[in-house]
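HUMAN: Forgive my ignorance: could you write out one protein's sequence and C-alpha cells?

ASSISTANT:
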Amino acid sequence: MQIFSGRAFQLAQNRWSATGVKWTSGNSKSSFICSNCRRQSTVAVSQSPPPAWSTDQKASANASHLSIDGHDYPTDSWTNVPSNIISAIPRRLHLQPSHPVALTRQLIESRFPSPTYKHYNNFSPIVTVAQNFDSLGFPADHPGRSRTDTYYINKDTCLRTHTSAHEADIFRKDESVGYTISADVYRRDAIDRSHYPVFHQMEGARLWDRRETSEGDVATTVWADVERLPKHGLNVEDPNPTIHPERNPLQAKYHNAEEIEAIAAHLKRSLEDVVVEIFSKAKEATLAADGIKSEVEEPLRVRWIEAYFPWTSPSWELEVFWQGDWLELLGCGIVKQDLLNNSGVPTKLGWAWGIGLDRVAMLLYGIPDIRLFWSLDERFLSQFSSNKPVSRFVPFSKYPACYKDVAFWLRSSSSSAGGGIRSNAQDFHENDVMEIVRSVAGDLVEDVKLFDQFSHPQSGRKSLCYRINYRSLERTLKNTEVNKLHNSVRSKLVEEMGVELR
C-alpha cells in the first residue's frame, strides 16, 4: 500500500524526496586532499574495491535492447536507467543473510505470523507501468511518473518505485487474509547520507471478508480478533476521533463507522506491537553500547497523527518518541475500497501500512550513512549476524572529506548557449544532476548540496552553484583521483545537460 511515511508520502504530495539538496562554484584545481576545507596533504593508500554497486555488472545495452539478468528489453525514448543502477539489482540486500536490512525485515515479519500473513520477498523489481502507477490510480500527469523521478526501461516498463506495485496482484491471488511485501525499490533522488537511489520498503495488509462474518457483522468479528492480539505497556497518545468528516473521512459509500472503529483498533494495536519489538531491541543495543540507563528506563511513547494518503481513508502516521524527539515511523490506514473492488475482491475490507526498512535499520543499529548498506567491507558486514542480539554499529574509521564546487548557467532559448529544452531554467530538474554525479563517482560521493543560485539582472539567465562532498567509507581519497572524478562530472554536465560552466 502506497502509504509510506517521509519520502514516500511526499511522492503523493509532489515528490518522493524527504529533503532537498543544494551545491557551489569554481573548478577546484587544488593539489591537496581536504578534510574540512578544500585542502589536505596527499596520502598514499592502497586501492580498495570499487563502489559496491559496480562490482557485479549485469547489464549490457545496445541501440535497441537492454539486457538485465539474462532478459532482453527493448529500449525507446523513455529509457533512462543507467548501468550503475542495473548492477545493483542482483544485490537484493533484504534477502542477504545477516545483512542489517534483512535482519530488520525479519524482525518486523515476526510480528505478522503465518498462516494469517503470507510474506512476499522475491518479486522482480522490473514491473509494468500499469502495475507501478495505473493499478494504484496515479493520474496521468502525476509527478511520480516523470522520467526525473522514475527509472524507465522503456515507456511500458520501469523499476518499481514502491512495493505497492505488487499490491493489486496479491489482492487478486487472494492466498491469505494478510500479507507483507519487502523489496528493493528504485528512485532518482538526492545524494546525502540518508538517501540512495536503491532502498528498501516493507508493507502489509489485513483484510476481512463480509461473506465470512456472521450476518455480515464485520465489527464483531474484528473486535474478537483484536482481543487475540498481544497486549503491551506503551504510553499511547491518540487524541483524535477515528473518523472526522473533513480531516479523516469515512468511505461512507462502502463502510460504516462501527466496522471502521474496529478495523482501526486492530491496525493500531498490530503496529504498536511492531514498535515494542523494534524499539525494545534498539534500547537494549543502546544500553549495551553506551550504558545510557535513563533512556532504557524511560517508557516507550507513541502517538497517532491524522494523515492523508491517496489510497487509504481514514489514514494515520505513527510517531515514536526516541532520543528526545518525535520520530515519524510509518504510515497506515483503511484501504480505499475502489482499489479492492478493482482487484476483484469487492466483499473484502481492511487495513494497510508501509515502512522504510533502511531508515529503521539505521535507527536500530546506529548506522550513520545509508551507503554503508552497500559496502562489501568485512569491517562492516562482520558486525551483524542473525545468531547474536542487535548491537550498535562500531565505526571502523572516518575518512576525510574533499569538497569540490561546480557552477553553471542554465540555458535559455535566447542565450548564445541555448537552443535546448532539458536544461532551460523552466525544465531543469535537480535529479538529473544527481544522476550525473552518481554515474561518475558512485558511492565515493557523500552528499551534493545547492550552495548558491542567482538570476542575471539583465539577461535573466539562472546560475546554480553546487558543492560535492567526495568521501569514501573505506579509504582516504587522493586528490588526483578526486580531481579526475570531478572533471568528469563537469564534462558530463556540459555534454548531457548543455549547461555553460562558470
The chain is about 25% helix and 25% strand. Confidence is low (pLDDT under 50) at residues 5-62, 413-423. The radius of gyration is 24 Å. Residues 325 and 368 are 17 Å apart (CA to CA).
